[in-house]
Amino acid sequence: MTVLQPLTVAAAAPSLVQSVDWLAIAPVVITAAVGLLVLVADLFVPEHRKPLLGWISVAGLAAATATLLPLRAGDRRTFCLTGPGTADPAACSYAADHFALVVQFLVLGGALVTALLSVTTVREARMPAGEYWFLLLSSAAGAALLPASRDLATLIVALEVASLPAFALVGMRRGDRLSSEAALKFFLSSVTATAVSLMGVSFVYAATGSLHLTQVADRLGHVPGRLDTLAMAGVALTLVGFAFKTAAVPFHFWVPDTYVGAPLPVAGYLSVIGKAVGFTGLILVTVIAFPTYSDVWGPALAVLAALTMTLGNAAALRQSADRPGGAVRLLAWSSVGQAGYLLVPIAAAAYAGRDQIGSTVAYALMYAAVNLGAFAVAALVARTKPLHRLSDYRGLYAESPLAALALAFFLLCLAGLPPGIIGLFAKVTVFRSAVDAGLGWLAVVMAVNVVVALYYYLRWTTLLFRAPDADPAQEGTQESAQPRTRAPWPVTAAIVLTAATALLLSGAPQLVLRFATGSLFPL
After folding, report:
1. Cys bridge to 65: 95, 104, 108, 332, which one at CB 3.0-4.6 A?
2. Of residues 246 and 441, which shows the higher confidence score?
3. Cβ–Cβ contacts within 10 Å for residue 232, how many?
């Protein structure tokens, strides 16, 4: 009896052998595999053929995005708990549900546009091609893994895989003081936030004995009284790291300097994919793992949303037209303000249920398309006016009518004005989520901020169509008489792709907004 008892216990232990659904994880695996392929190929490809690495990366991201089509049913899970007495259909580490697929489409599509913008930048700035493309693909793989993560360990690992390469990408311009300072500030603040989150995860695990989000949610409701304070502290600390990634106030201080110091495609990548990572993690830990403490994180996120949108828009108003880097800084502070709008439905979910999350996803899809488009036009203008001043855009319509019209459309979408219908509808859905949740005061704050943001978006838009100013420093010089350089076709392709997406969504907003009327998570 004493000999058989250990065998019986061992037989009842969970099995460590788990089946793998390769199709479900294909988008992440393909992205990571292409990144490794590019890194190894860089050792053998001669210098004059280095641009080939960029096109391999573009093709890999396109293939990874295409693999989402067979998964559109949203019913696949893998890496699940197995074994007698432990099988739980909801306790899986990876879920390719509708929520994960929509965010993965945003991430991989955004990374694809970033790659198109980077093809020319890497070559002209003489950045190390192999390292750049490996870091970009690695970060994209981590960002694609995060929305499908369903346990806290995988969530944190995915967050760091998405973040660590981004530090190096920001500092990729060697010898540039601003780039080095931006990378250092980004690194130090992010590592601090991650350490706080890891401490929070350890507290949650100590209180619940599980890392799977669904099991954490079940067990947090039955935590012994002596562990309640520990669990509450763990919930609060875990949210800090994701609040940092979303650039929510007061965790926003790294954004302006990081965007200005980073290569322009990387700044666009951080403004969209970096935020998608933060908001996705925030949604997963609040709505799925911590609904028991919704009375704690709901009001906290509502206050953060109000502070974030107010400070972001106020700072954007202060950007001078002649300040070097002013255009990028305005986009940076605008992204902080937009983060406040994205926080509203998450806060509303604490009061009105998880269906409110659809508004955040719909708004994030709109924001990704138009903000990357704005950075694409900025990359085009920077080819002849590298100081990134707002005044550099004066008279852009006379120089490049299509680029000016595209940028005007992107800015109007961000402002929520016609013909940017998708921006207007996205803001309405976010506003409605606050009203439905009984957060009338937050809806009023949002309405005021939307009106404030109109000023700086319209100010930039009107500059595009004014008569260009003659630059006294260049009058009569041979440089001013030279013909305008032609836009590289990858940059043009990025502008066309983002503009076409925004136009499609403005013509048929129901393609996105239907997510705001139903749950993205399986019941």
Report:
1. 108
2. 441
3. 19
Residue 444 has pLDDT above 90, yes or no: yes
- DSSP sequence for 173-203: STT-HHHHHHHHHHHHHHHHHHHHHHHHHHH
pLDDT band at 7 (very low <50, low <70, confident <90, very high): very low
Q: DSSP letter at 514?
A: G
- Please tell me the distance from the alpha carbon of residue 471 to that of residue 485, in angstroms, as a whole number: 18
* Distance of alpha carbon 180 from alpha carbon 287, whole angstroms: 37
In whole angstroms, what is the distance from residue 233 CA to residue 199 CA?
Answer: 9
Integer-rounded Cα radius of gyration of the chain: 24
Q: Could you tell me the two tokens for 311?
A: 């400070």
Q: How many residues does the chain have?
A: 523
Single-letter amino acid, residue 120: T
Task: Give me the half-sphere count of Cα atoms (radius 13 Å) on the Cβ side of residue 388.
Answer: 23
Amino acid identity, residue 430? Answer: V
pLDDT tens per residue across span 58-90: 999 999 999 999 988 878 888 887 655 444 555
Contact 344, 449 (CB under 8 A): no
Dist. CA 302–CA 312, nearest whole Å: 15
Taking the C-alpha atoms of residue 29 and residue 511, their distance in angstroms, rounded to an integer, is 28
Nearest to 16 by CA among 109, 82, 96, 106: 82
Ramachandran quadrant class, 131 (left: phi over 0; alpha: psi -120 to 50; beta: rest)? alpha
Half-sphere exposure of 506 (CA within 13 A, CB side): 22
Instruction: State the DSSP code for 244.
Output: H
End-to-end CA distance of the chain: 45
More confident call, 16 vs 96? 96
- CA dist., res. 70 & res. 139, Å (int): 24
pTM across the whole model? 0.89
Percent of the residues in the chain that have a pLDDT greater than 70, as a whole number: 89
Q: CB count, 10 Å around CB of 21?
A: 16
Q: What angle do CA 136, 304, 290 make, to 5 degrees?
A: 80
Q: Is the pLDDT of residue 519 over 70?
A: no
